[in-house]
Amino acid sequence: MMFDPGSSVRVKNDWPETRGPAHIRTPHYVRGMQGTVVRWLGAFPNPEDLAFARPAATRALYHVRFDQPAIWQEGRAGDELVVEIFEHWLEPA
Amino acid sequence: MTIVETDGEKLLTALRSVLAAKGIASPAEIAERIASTDSANPGQGARMVAKAWTDPAYRARMLEDGTKAAEELGIPMRGMPPLGVLEDSADVHNLIVCTLCSCYPRAVLGYPPFWYKSAGYRARAVRDPRGLLAEEWGTVLPDHVRLRVVDSTADYRWMVLPLRPAGTEGWDEQRLASIVREGDMIGVTIPRV
Question: Cβ contacts (< 8 Å) between A76 and chain B: which residues?
């Protein structure tokens, strides 16, 4: 799935590290959170496979913006977090 | 004997020969990478910032593609992750962190400073960035400025293009570059005269 800039997305609330060895580049604090796609950054080999020397298909990488106070329940209104997230962690929201 | 008990030099020599024998990395390629890693320092990023401050066309190219803009100034980028440049404005201040490890724009800033890799910086930069800036760095952002914290989690590396400070009118690139510090390009500090 491709996401256009401005698309509303939700990061999957998934915890692969609870199911066995994993190398995940999606930080804990954004899992399950809603954000907005800023832009497509390119396609890169999936680090979750690369880390274990498995064949790694390329996956689209997006810059996704989150409302900072909404994530932490504190902070200054208007401040934001921008995180690089791979497409397979994102769902339309 | 386990790998941690092995003589480091011997292990490195063995690894180098295997890499060469398998055609993965030749001794010349390894030497080139060591040289470019060792020569990278914040002065490289500072040159880019100073040029962007004085040359609007370069600034546009730098924001479009940081890697190409670095190469344009002779900074070696071969084999490096793509470089993105985040532009500060009168309304937005950028701060860079890598909460997962220590991803850092080494090609243009050199080795990451110790604090960048600390758990304290990595945690507080995303949870309490204004507190971190004010209490650890003495950087207090005006109320109307939005703070954008960029968590460098994957394949890109990011640097900040800070605002040119007042009082530098008429300065040439070299003089401008001399006031741009490592922290200014990570966003913990702001260039000052």
Answer: 130, 147
